TrEMBL record:
InterPro entries: DUF305_CopM-like, Ferritin-like. Pfam families: DUF305 (PF03713). Residues 46-90 are annotated as: Disordered. Keywords: Membrane, Transmembrane, Transmembrane helix. This is Uncharacterized conserved protein, DUF305 family. Residues 96-238 form the DUF305 domain. The keyword Transmembrane applies. The chain crosses the membrane at residues 15-37. Residues 46-65 have a biased composition (Low complexity).
Length: 242
């Protein structure tokens, strides 16, 4: 009997040892898998539950669908917010085109008037102002024509203007100016050119308000500054001559 019990105990101890060896083998395999995991493969990690989004009062819903109108005769489409792409900013608009196509003939008339000063006027300060007008507005006309050409436009691209160009002088007024001489010419020139310059200033202010082209914006700002200064110079020149 004693021998049978010893053999039974010996058999149970061996079974326990075998179980422990199996457990150790499993643990060792897990450690080896972690140690020898390839560098270029992502290692498994415990997943944490994402935090709940903050509820901001009044914040717009960035995921709300957007209703896009279809072409004439076609139904509207519904797009998700992440499917929308921002519209490209327009490089120019109708206000820019209208300004350019009106300013070219406006400048050309100023050149016609300024060229009369050398032979008909007697005030030397007005002759200097006329030279400045010629030096400034001839290059500006070329720049405006280039602006149109670069965009596939021409002088007729502005269409029919709803109002006449501000400050433009009639053919009859130009004829009277051409026939005048001396002090009469100087007074007539200053009156007409101030009105002409003021018209350009008004047109420039309009395109600054509703135009979008950066080049035209800069030119309009220059027109306002330069021609306002010339208006003051002409008034001073005429007043000093009296």
């Amino acid at each position: 009997m004693l021998g049978v019990r010893i053999r039974a105990l010996f058999g149970r101890s061996r079974a326990i040892v075998l179980v422990e060896l199996v457990v150790l083998a499993v643990v060792a395999a897990g450690v080896a898998a972690v140690v020898w995991w390839p560098d270029d493969q992502p290692k498994p990690a415990a997943k944490a539950s994402p935090p709940a989004p903050l509820a901001l009062p009044g914040a717009p819903d960035a995921t709300a669908p957007v209703l896009m109108p279809g072409a004439p005769g076609e139904p509207a489409r519904t797009l998700q917010a992440n499917e929308m792409s921002p519209l490209p900013r327009r490089s120019h608009n109708n206000a820019d085109i209208r300004f350019v196509t009106m300013m070219i003939p406006h400048h050309e008339q100023a050149l016609v008037m300024a060229r009369l000063v050398a032979d008909r006027g007697q005030n030397p300060q007005l002759k200097i102002i006329a030279d400045r007008i010629l030096a400034a507005q001839e290059p500006e006309i070329k720049m405006l024509e280039t602006w149109l050409t670069d965009r596939g436009l021409d002088r007729n691209s502005g269409g029919r203007h709803q109002h006449s160009m501000a400050g433009m002088q009639s053919a009859e007024a130009l004829a009277r100016l051409t026939a005048a001489r001396g002090a009469d010419f100087d007074r007539m020139f200053v009156t007409m050119m101030i009105e002409h310059h003021q018209g350009a200033v008004d047109m420039a202010a309009e395109v600054l308000a509703i135009g979008v082209d950066g080049i035209i914006n800069e030119m309009a700002s220059s027109v306002i500054a330069e021609q306002t200064a010339e208006i003051n110079r002409m008034r001073e020149a005429l007043g000093a001559a009296k």
